[in-house]
Each structure stands twice: as C-alpha cells, then as structure tokens.
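Please think about what follows:
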Amino acid sequence: MRQFSAADASLLVAESANTPMHMSGMIIVDPSSAADGFSYEAAKKVIESRLSLLKTSRERPVSVPFKFDLPYMARDPEFDLDYHFRNTSLPKPGDWEQLLTLYNRLIRNPLDLNRPLWELYLVNGLDNVAGVPKGSLALIQKIHHSIIDRRSGVDLFSVIFDPEPAALNIPVEMESWKVDRIPSDFELLARSYFSYIFQPYKIAGRLGDTAKSFFHAGAQMVMDQVGLSPFYSAPPKALSNGNVCRNCDISLKTFSLDTVKTIKKAIPESTVNDVVLALCAGAMRRYLMKQGKLPHKPLVATVPISIHSAKKKGNNDQQLAIVPVSLATNLTDPLERFDAIYKSVRESRAYNKAIDANRLMDYNQYRPFAMATLASRFAAQNGPASRFASHSNLMIANVPGPQVPIYFAGAKALLTIASSPILQGNRPVINVQSCLGQMTFCTTSCLDSMPNAKTYPDCLEEELDALLTAVAPCRTRKSVEPIETIHKPVSKVLVKPPSKTLLMLEFARPPWELGAHYVAQPILSLAPKGDGHMVMAIPGFLANDLTTKAMRMYLNRCGYQTSGWQQGTNYGYSEKVGANLIWRVSRLFKKHGKISLVGQSLGGVYACELARMYPHMVRFVITLGSPYADIENASNVMWLYRRINGKEHAKKFDYQLQRCRIPPPVPTTSVFSKTDGIVSWRSSDIDKHHNSQCESVEILGSHIGMSFNPHSLWVVANRLAQAEADWQPFEPTGREKYFYRSHSRVQTREIQGNAER
C-alpha cells in the first residue's frame, strides 16, 4: 500500500458530483480488420493481459478518517474486471446523436472512489454513424486524473492498442499480483499519527512547497502578462464563470487534417496549432454574436503546450506549461485575427520552448491519448495556480494523435475524441485530437456558460470556410509586417474625387430632393410590396438615424420592418462601432431571420463588410453612393475623416476599406450618381469580379440626398422585393428607361469615350 502524493491527493479531493475529475475519451474502431473476428470476450482478454502494464488499474483509494492525512492506494482484493469493462449497445438506428447522448451521459457520472478509478465501455450498434463503416464499435474510457502518470500520461488506451492487427504476445501476468489487506479506520489513524510524530518536518515541508508554488505562480503571472503585452489583457465577462453545473454538454465537429493544413501552408511560418486557435476563436466569436453576447474586449484562452525541459536532455525532455493567449475576438477580419493570435502566442516565453509537432507525433505514434491525458491532468492539477496566474474565458488543448494505424484486439482505430472536465470557474474546454488524417474538435461546456452549445460546431464550419476563402489567393505574410498591411490589393484603381463645382452644389440640392420626395409619394406607392423582412439602414459619415428616417418610413409603407443603426452620429469606424454593429445584426437576425442592409456612403462600407463576414445573416445589400475602390482618393471628405479620427487610425482603416473591392457573397446593388459631389461615381461602380449577383444602378441626384431621393428609393424598393432564391438584376422597363440606364450601357459608353480620347 502506497500513499498519494500531495498533487495526486488534491485531484482526488476536488472530486464532486458536479466536478468529476476524470479524463474521458472515445475511439471508434472497425472490427472488420480483426483476422479472427472481434468479440467482447476477445477484447476482455486483451485488457486483462495489459493490466500489469498499468499498475494503478487494480488499485483503489483508501481515505484516512477525518482527512487527517493523505489517502493511500491499495491493491484491491475485490477487483472485478467485469465491473470496469462493460458492454452496451445503441438502439436503432445507431446514429451520431445517440452515440453522443450516451457518451455525454457516461462521462457526467463520477467514478466510484471505492473501486479502481477507471471504466471502459464497449459500445455496439454504430450502424448509422456518418463517416464510419456500418457495424463499427466505440470504446469510451474514463480514467481519474490522480492515477495518470504525470510524466508519461499513460492511460488505459495507451496500453491496450497495438501497432499491428495481431495482438502482441504478452503474458497475462508479467509478475505475480499480490493484493493488499485494507486496514481499518483505527489502523489508518494510528499510521498517520506515528507518521507525523516521527517526521516532525513533514508539515513544514508541505507548507514550504506550497509557499514556493504560490510565489512561483505569482512571478509567472507577472512575466506572462508582461510577455504577452500588448495582446494579452484581462478577459471580459463573456462566458459564465460561476459554479459548475451538473448538466454539461458535449459537441463534436470533425474536419480533414489536410484541409486544416491547407490554411497552414498558405500562411508562411504558421503552424497547425495557430490554425486551430484561429478556428476556435472565430467560431467562438460567431457563437457569441448569435447569442447577442459578443464583448468589446477579446476573449482569452489558456493553452497547455509541451515544452523542452531545462533539466533533462534527450527524447523524454517534455514538460507542460499553460500559455494564456488572446483570441482577438474583437477583430472582424479572419486574417487580422489570425495575425493577432500568431503574435500573441509567440510573445510567450514558454511558447518559444515548445516542442515541435513532429516530435509530439513521434511521442504519440502508438499512444492515442498520452499527451491529451497529460495535458488534461496538468490543467486540472494547476487549476488554482492558473486562476491566479492568468484569468481566461476558456481552455483549448490541441494534441496531435497517431497518424499511423493502431489496433485494439485486431480492430482498427478510425477516430479519436478526447474531453476534459470543466474546471476553473465554469469555463468551456475545447479538446482537439487528430487521428489518421481526421481532426476532431470536442467542446465540453456547462449549460450556464454556453447555452445552445449545439450551434458551436456549425460556427466552426463557418469559420473554416471563411479562412479557406481568405487564404484562397495564396496570401503571403511575414510575421514582422504590421497588421494593417495585410489587405493591400494587388492592383489599385486610381480614381479622382468629384470636381469642386459638384462639391459646392452638393449642399444646395438636398432640399429640392426632399421636396421631390413628398411630391412623388403617389408614384412611389406603386413600387413592389415587400414580404415583411427586416431592413436595417446605416447612415453615412457625420450622419445619424435621422437622415435615414424618410427612407425607413417609406419602406415601412412598402411592407417591410425597418431599424436604424442606433449608434448616434457616424464619426468613423472603430472597434466599438464594429462590435456594436455585429451585435445589432445578430440580435435582429435572431429575432427576425435574415435581414437586408441599406447603407449610405460609409454606412454602405459597413454593410458590405457585415455581409462579407456573415452571409448567413444577410439577405440583400444595397449601398447608396458608397465607394468600392481607391477610397482614400475618391472622396472629397477623406481629409475630414483623418482630421476627426487621427492619421494613424485613418491609415489603418484605409487598408481595411480596400477590401470593399471584393463584393459580398450576397446579392448586392450599388446605387450611384455621376453628379455626386462627395464620392466619385467611378469608385461607386461595383467591380463584379465575375459575381453575377452584383450590379450598379445609376440615378440622378446628390450624395447627401440619396437616402430620400425618389429615384434611389424606387430602386431600393424594387431590389428588396426580389426573391432571395431567384434574384434578377435591375432592368428598367417602360417609363423607368427615362430615369435609369443599365450598367452595361454605362460601361459601353465609358469604353467608347476612352477609345476616342
């Protein structure tokens, strides 16, 4: 009988009904590869033959009465393999949902502390699970953190899987197994009493170790926060940090490892771990937006990593560290967010000692959960320290698994899934495990911290698509380049601002257009009626919701629901403006479904960016006098924008605005006027980039008056009435031909004029 160490005992004491301290995992295997057939009895024999390789598998904890001393581990005289290895089956049809329900139910229940601290379930009936052959089996493991080797991370899965289909010839018992006699409570108290008497420095030694760990954690906190500046900061109150509830939720999403590596290869010097962090960050941003709870400050994640030991040299020089990483969820662009995360993790001194992924894969070649269990144990063991050292909103653990075939009783492993208990203030935990070219994201969350967690896998898929789209042009980046240079276009369309004459007339024409608006009401009432969907109007630079009120009142009469942007005067882009707009769109989408965006001038730039980022929320985009190319030269008021917002802020935003040359992936209409005195019409003529759902419509009017000009209002009503699934470009018919010209004719005349010149 041996006594627990203080570290192992702390994990045992932390066990409760709401916080089970066990590592869980699931491996799906294909029994068809077993040459002699697969059965529960054959699997049981393999497990029985390997128990001697994991001595803790037959040891049970023995607690000292009144917690007077550290508990003991005794070789259980009543060990029953049938209790720990159980056979069960899914009901028909045996699909993913049923498997996850069973997995979630099993891992919620704490282990019996009066028995050896592990359980293994063999699940049959996986007949309708997408991506795996019919008749596959699932192995679900639960093993307590206190019996996981803190150096090797060896668990049950590590010893029962083989590199060959045929089981290795290992004797049932490599050494004789002798059970212990479980002492009585009086004997345990007496043993503890004499232990303290004859070891007077025992308590002092423990207090000294505790104090040393405390001050080390405090120093590490200071170093980490200084090292991560300016990216790292205290996390916002986004996800619940209360007590852990009993009802936790598990959600899964699997991607091809090659797809993830496609993003890695497109961004030089990046790693798969960078891509994983960016995916989780973008998905969490999307999830919080849908919940209407996206904070202005970026979320912070703790990331366990394997580092080189300063004491050991050789193949087994791994140690673990926890690195706080800013997820940059306040940034809207996926590539800017990727760069911020890239720089954040490399500011950490611990990350600079991280072991290469190839080394970890060699380490895990035949042991599917070795590093995953080690990382989970480390995070659990350092729970109080990490709370003190770096507050965070969630934990992300990415561990490479075996990329070569491994077998259990001849059955080939197809997919591995790892999950960890929720620790440190009810924070979600995302375990990422790869196996045989598949990467599985397993999110464990409490219902209080992540309601509707089932939507998170969809957010992961949306973010993966966004990153793939962003890196499609084979983007090149140097890590030392500033973030604001990322979106420079390959070529720039040089556009001159409108003439001074048009600028002077700009402020004289809006009163006449407003009068024409009321005179034309009988004609405007003949416009196509809407289907009642929500339309949000975004004002232009130095304008507010009052300037779009006439347009919103007209659209209400046409049968639409309307809303302003509700942020006061638009003085220019800021992170707060971007976050508020995203929050506003997500709230309207959650309440009304897909919405349409109508933006005037700078408001149209915002509308395009919102639709480009979240096309699933946006139905149509209509811009009124908004620039799409060479924005810093095409406007007569850019000097004022820089004066109000500062040169550095305006310069950074210039590069972001250049993304407007890429039309949104939703039907988009750009309304422009050749007599616009603020923004050049050549900049407002949208570049289709072979996008058949983008168009430009020319009207007669001023820039300021576009939100109530009868010509533009007719186009807005006509475009909003289009069927989403059957969108058609605007083609003037009848008397409309006197007021509007088709885009093709406008382009033809410009080309002819250039040829004559």
Observations:
- The longest strand covers residues 22-30.
- The CA atoms of residues 118 and 143 lie 4 Å apart.
